[in-house]
Amino acid sequence: MKSRKNPNHVSFSYDISPESKTRFEKIHRALKFKTKSQTLEAIILQASMQDISGPDALRRIEIKIDQLTEFIEMGL
After folding, report:
1. pLDDT 10s digits, 25-47
2. Closest of 39, 46, 42 to residue 24, by C-alpha
3. Cα separation of 3 and 40, whole Å?
4. Which of 11, 22, 51, 66 lies 20 to 30 Å from 36 when distance is taken between CA atoms?
5. What is the pLDDT of residue 34?
């Protein structure tokens, strides 16, 4: 078994189609990260940020700002 260079990392494997592997390789080369792990982390981060900053989240923030503005205007 291969020893880990970084004890704070874990092994992660997945099965993907050959087409997906080719797409991942193209993304990896385009992003120019040193390791495929860094590329995968960047993809995961981007996907999670889209979830966090999606239209629903922006709408909820807008509603909260409107509510806060009303409270301020009422002097609360």
Report:
1. 999 999 898 999 899 989 888 87
2. 39
3. 21
4. 51
5. 92
The C-alpha R_g of the chain, in whole angstroms, comes to 21
Q: How far apart, in whole angstroms, are the C-alpha atoms of residue 57 and residue 36?
A: 30
Q: Half-sphere exposure of residue 21, counting CA atoms within 13 Å on the CB side? A: 6
Q: Do 47 and 36 meet the contact criterion of CB atoms below 8 Å apart?
A: no
Task: Record the pTM.
Answer: 0.58
* pLDDT for the residue 18: 92
Closest CA to 37 of 15, 18, 9, 4: 9
User: DSSP readout, the chain?
Assistant: -PPPS-TT---------HHHHHHHHHHHHHHT-SSHHHHHHHHHHHHHHHHHTSHHHHHHHHHHHHHHHHHHHHT-
List phi, psi (to 5°) of 43: -65, -45
